[in-house]
Amino acid sequence: MLKKSTVRIIAIAFALVLFASSDAFASNSDKKTKTRKTKTHQTGCSKTSNADIVKAIQEQLAADSAIKDQMRHINVSVKKRTVTLEGWLDGKESVAKAAALAKGTKCVKRVISKLKEKGGGSCGAGLKPCGDSCIDRRSVCNIGN
Q1: In this predicted model, what pLDDT tens digit does every residue of 56-99 receive, in sequence order?
Q2: 5 Cβ contact partners less than 8 Å away, ≥ 6 residues apart
Q3: Residue 144: which of 86, 71, 84 has the closest Cα?
Q4: Cα 145 to Cα 55: distance, rounded to the nearest angstrom
Q5: What confidence tens digit (pLDDT) does each residue in 89-134 have?
Q6: Rounded distance between C-alpha atoms, residue 47 and residue 37, angstroms
Q7: CATH topology assigned to domain 50-136
Q8: Long-range contacts made by residues 133-139, C-beta under 8 angstroms, separation at least 24?
Q9: Using CB atoms within 10 A as the burial measure, which of 67, 68, 74, 117 is most buried?
């Protein structure tokens, strides 16, 4: 049989091993938490509202010489950092450029471009007027805001 002193030494050694492993686990958890916080802090998008993103995109579009005179034709809406562009522009290049500018805006996850080349005509079924263009009836018109 084992002596009492040997049992105590084994018990103390076991307790030390458990303590050391729980400390290492806690230290590893802290590192994961710090990494997450740093990542969120780096993006800075957690406090950015949909309205802030709409405004940033509208400012970028207005700053572009090929698009600025056509702003009344473009509606920008955002939901959960997904941007929807609706309306029309003169030329395929302007349509592509508007989508690229929106996609390059900080905090934008995705861009859905429903922009068409040229405009005119009346709004069809399921659409409503917004500025000089037509948008989905469920969309919020942001032209002129």
Answers
A1: 999 999 999 989 998 988 999 999 999 999 988 988 899 999 99
A2: none
A3: 71
A4: 9
A5: 988 899 999 999 999 999 999 999 999 887 556 677 888 888 878 8
A6: 14
A7: Histidine-containing Protein; Chain: A; (3.30.1340)
A8: 133/72, 133/73, 133/74, 133/75, 133/86, 133/87, 133/88, 134/86, 134/87, 135/75, 135/86, 135/87, 136/86, 139/75, 139/77, 139/84, 139/86
A9: 74
